Amino acid sequence: MMRTHYCSEIVPALAGKRVKLAGWVHEIRDFGAVKFILLRDRSGITQLTIKKDSPETSKELVEAAESLVKETAIVAEGVVAGKTIAKVGREIMPTRIEIVGRVLKQVPFEVTGKVPAEIDVRLDHRSIDLRRLETRAIFKIRSEAQKAFRNAMLDLDCEEITPPCIVAESTEGGTDLFHVKYFEREAFLAQSPQLYKQLAVIGGLDRVFMTTPVFRAEKHNTTVHLNESTQMDCEIGFADDEDALEFLEKTIIAILAAVKKNCAAELALLKSDFSVPHDVPRFEYGEIIEKLEKKKIAMEWGEDFSKETEQKLPALLGSELFFITRWPTKIRAFYSMPLPENPKVCKAYDLSFKGLEIASGAQRIHDPALLVKQLEFHGLKPKDFEPYVDAFRYGAVPHAGWSIGLERLVMRLANRDNIRECALFPRDRTRLTP
Fold first, then answer.
1. Edge-to-edge strands, sheet with 166-167
2. DSSP string, 255-301
3. Is the pLDDT of residue 404 over 80?
4. Is residue 95 within 8 Å of residue 61, measured between CB atoms?
5. Tell me: the pLDDT tens digits for 84-105?
């Protein structure tokens, strides 16, 4: 390997030890007799201090240092300093610098962030943008959230599955689908793994989870939507909505706790803060409508929350993280189980975090006759869903589940205002490259 340590591993206990670092030149400060080079890798920054007039400093080292420009990729070998006054808190006295990647074109924007760059410029050059400390922090948080999700699912005895992304028909009844040519047939990119995770559960896998891309051909231009996004889903059999809510509550608390513990430096850099609750409060849709009316915020029963209203809910309800349950049946997916005592309301729920919906789910309909009825109620053609409905005619069991929108979750964890910052290579209405 070209390195023995990452920057974050340069600790006082290594003082006097020889190490080898690999990364990019983040900053150069030349004070004549002394040259400081800040080397950056995925874990942080270490200062390389070169005393040009020192008899221990070779001519080759000085020449290599003088040839460097910012964003040059280098390998630096040297001795860890004892006491250091470096602001980054880590310093080595290099004996050798090897250039392994030269800068052959002008870097399109200032990676240090001293000169702000527009988000579209950064996304046009995403591989450069990933070198920014802030961007790196976002994806460390995203990685930790995914890891915590998977660990929580395994702790809850769920099995991981991989549903298809190419499907023969709409998985949720919508019309905004990406069409693809599948040999001699027409196919679509999946809007959701919904139907397939249900089939897995009623097929006997019982408890499943997945992390999968989904695709929606909606022509929106907002800061909270993407045309390709990532979902973290769970589906459990022999269960109702209360069981699924318990799974989701345990999972989101586990994610928040893991990010809070393992990404403290990244959260501080991004000026993000949130609490890790012991439990997540629940509010029924009708209850929230009543609270809004008392605050003179107009909203009819049966409407979805507008973006503006959604952002007011944390203050109204006294919590930054909460569930909204018992939604109007007509505005939820056709497979959401209606309440037997009041079919206008269904066993669906959302999870809101800092004024943004980050997850949704429901107990599913497992009775094929009721499925057909609800397809018609939502203006869909049962014959278009016949293979799906037919699967419930062979001893289907009660089941429920949910989906977390990963990019939306990371938006709130990382204190970002634009969802495109939270996707590695985002796809929206206008962006297809890089």
1. 166-167, 185-189, 179-182
2. HHHHHHHH-HHHHHHTT------SS--EEEHHHHHHHHHHTT----T
3. yes
4. yes
5. 877 888 999 999 999 999 999 9
